[in-house]
Amino acid sequence: xKPYFQDKIVLASxxxxxxxxxxxxxxxxxxxxxxxxxxxxxxxxPIALVKDLSRxxxxxxxxxxxxxxxIGADTIVVVDNRILGKPGSEQEAVQMLEVxxxxxxxVLTGFTIGHKKKDKEITxxxxxxxxxxxxxxxxxxxxxxxxxxxxxxxxxxxxxxGGFMVESICGSYSNVVGLPLxxxxxxxxxxxxxxF
Length: 196
Known about the structure:
single chain, 196 residues, alpha/beta, Maf protein, seven-stranded mixed beta sheet, 7 strands, 31% helix
């Protein structure tokens, strides 16, 4: 049995991982990436930042989709209160992995779900703690030379080859992939967007 949803659900993101996670739940998802300046709010605390960016993304798409549920999300990796974005080069990927090796870090995702016509909106944030194993330089370089790090916060994908670096996690696995499914589905049900 698939969940029931009356209005369409639009994901304000180009992330194939987020789309795949939602489709695993039986939801039919349309993609309409939000065009926002993500440099705004960099002076905010990490949790406030991901919530703010998710809200900006959702509202940018809500203005175009009045009759749909819109999901906006933003994920960051934080270590020592330092935000690690997506690496733009092999050198940046190596530097990020050198910071993460043998240490614990946080993966934070903010998400906003809203419906313009129904005048409903909820924003939440979820944190997962991830412990990396200690990696020698050759392992870091091998991973940085793969195509995997370059569209992912923190420069790794837990659901792919990057899973070999993860010793343990505390919290939502799907959050580390890009969207905390438990909390997102809970919020969709609370808003009346999805029924079982």
